[in-house]
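Write out this protein's structure.
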Amino acid sequence: RISEVNARYLIENIGDDISVIKNEIEKLCNFSKDGEIDKQTIDFLCIKTVEASVYDLVKKIFACDITSSLNILGDLFFMRIEPVIILHTIATSYVDLYRAYSGKKAGKSTPQIVTDFGYKNRAFVIDRALLDAKKFNSQKLNLSFEALLKADDSLKSFSSDQRTVLEQLIVRLIYIISKGEAVDKD
């Protein structure tokens, strides 16, 4: 057995490729026998997609957990994930956050935000973003986007060490969330 919540969690972590889902479910069923498939079992047995790994990084950034954030970044580099893909996924999470924040600020309900921004079958993204948006105000969002743009420019310049650029980005984003100001004030 698997609950609806855990089934969604499984899809978020392994992706929506039907053959991968089939293989992972077979593995989970064989391991669990007649028991319930829970989150711990999914985390223990299933291989996460790159997106899920980067989303874990974003969760740790939003939680201001610098140690876990940098450890996950190290894992992503070990897996040889392109730095541009890591940055893109972080930036996408911030766009989701901005949309949720803006929608709530405009007095929209969650279903309206989902519809207005075309999240149709991905309402869980807005639900998660709404929880994270509680830590933000417009200044924190603006500073975060400035930090993301600066990192993007640095990665594209090829003159900077890509790992250092992303490590600095993580520190900047966490500092912005916790202090409400930029690390390197101009």
